[in-house]
Design brief:
Helix content is 0%, strand content 56%. By secondary structure, the protein is mostly beta strands. The strands form 2 sheets. It has a 4-stranded antiparallel β-sheet with strand order 4-3-6-7, with no helix packed on it. Strands 1-2-5 form a 3-stranded antiparallel β-sheet, with no helix packed on it.
């Protein structure tokens, strides 16, 4: 807004918001195995961690360097009890957190 109270706007022709990574969990809720579908726009060293509702790390799905592309990473849920869990994807300029359920 200008000092005289008027406002001028430029038209937005296009807006592209992109991240360097995306994660989804299938199935959700999961019972025996959760599949983490990870998409990376470029090569990156990533960690994919499983956290409980108190934020404690209770599992690791991946801790490696991945090329750009799509990956399906399986995680065995046998050691987890029924409840709500979180995944955290960490890498250089990457951080994503999401939630999933475990039903037994």
């Amino acid at each position: 807004m200008d000092s005289d109270g008027s406002a001028k706007y430029s038209p937005i022709r296009s807006l592209v918001i992109s991240g360097e990574a995306h994660v989804s969990v299938q199935p959700n809720p999961a019972t025996d195995v959760a599949y983490f579908k990870v998409t990376l726009e470029k090569e990156a060293q990533i960690q994919l961690q499983i956290l409980d509702d108190l934020g404690r790390i209770v599992g690791a799905v991946a801790n490696d360097r991945f090329a750009a592309g799509n990956f399906d990473l399986a995680f065995n849920l046998n050691q987890l009890t029924e409840g709500i869990y979180y995944y955290r994807l960490i890498g250089s300029n990457i951080e994503e957190t999401g939630r999933f359920s475990v039903n037994k």
